[in-house]
């Protein structure tokens, strides 16, 4: 009799635990806006094709119960783990460390945005798990760190200039796509070098859409609580709270300056106490650009370096309407990059290379060249 009683009690306890577990997962699914994802899937077949709902068991198995040795790193929002799904896909799993509604809202915002876009230079969201206390997002694994990691290494040599130029083009394409080529324009709102992932071929994968916002087609912007990263943050957006696509343009301009100077926008201070953007912008018309550019860029670049410096200065104008659109930035960079590629493929001699620089009226060999380039601006 006693054995039957023990077996019966064990069965009942197990059933109660299973029921509690199921109820808890249902509560988390509701808390994590699971209904929103279901609506998105119903509204768009493309989302259903691209998105998968991953179980917690699958993710625990993929990460060895979220073992610390599987951590790739993480920012303010929480750790990111490397995992291998049963499908043998290598993925990055983002897990929030703070259980507050704002964090959950940002996670779901990222699901809503990334599940509806498809671009080779934007990180792909494979799926999500909403049955845990905080939602888990499953991305393609991008193996080669961030642009920030590659630029800010110890020693005098960093990314080759030709790679920096191509990375700038690809990042511009991703942002121009978000602003112009989706059904409802998307403002990233946190464009910075740590959010530009690079794969094994140094191909750009723009990431971190938690703070992103849709802009209705009939509006030029939206009023929001200010979010972003100081050093990259549009000062006009910061002072007014009015977010427009030109806010991303400003942040992208800071990245161009970062690529040109290899200085950190968040922490840099000039001898006069200016931040990176002000110091750079003041150096262009004063003909002192050569003093702030990365020596590696001066050595490896040609006339296109000043072209891009002028473009960067336009992107970081204080008044947002004075900045170009991301589409204009993209086209300008593609033109500069194509000219550079054509020059390289022609295997130019030193003499012909001087002619190329002269034809553009640009030089980075000294202050006089910069003066010539900026005198007509």
UniProtKB/TrEMBL annotation:
Name assigned to this protein: Protein kinase domain-containing protein
Native organism: Setaria viridis
Matches recorded under Gene3D superfamilies: Phosphorylase Kinase, domain 1, Transferase(Phosphotransferase) domain 1
Topology relative to the membrane: Single-pass type I membrane protein
Protein keywords: ATP-binding, Kinase, Membrane, Nucleotide-binding, Serine/threonine-protein kinase, Signal, Transferase, Transmembrane, Transmembrane helix
GO cellular component, one term: plasma membrane
Domain of life according to the entry: Eukaryota
Biological process terms in GO annotation: cell surface receptor signaling pathway
Region described as Disordered: spans on this chain: 340-377
